[in-house]
Amino acid sequence: MAAGIPAGEPIADVSAQFVSAASLRLRSDWFIKLRWGAGLGVVAVSAGATLIVGFDLDLRFLIGCGALLLLLNGIYYLRNRNVKPDDIRSELTWSSCRWSSTWCC
Questions:
Q1: What's the predicted TM-score (pTM) here?
Q2: Is the alpha carbon torsion for 66, 72, 74, 80 positive or negative?
């Protein structure tokens, strides 16, 4: 049972998964590091498959998608570098935006 919550009372969704905003930021930063590799991989593999192997792919869409992912990673990086993780709701909002942008490509 969570400290300070009477028996039988539900725990707020905000506090159910993360202990603090800093712990959520650490998890988000780890995920962003993976996305850097994904963005570079999309650009490299799509360009390599078209230019080296000769596949007929629409490079504009694939490289655009990879470039969008890299741009969003840069925005998250700059935001996380300049804003302290002191509000869990703000971190959850940015985290949900990050997940939304992951599914757009």
A1: 0.63
A2: negative
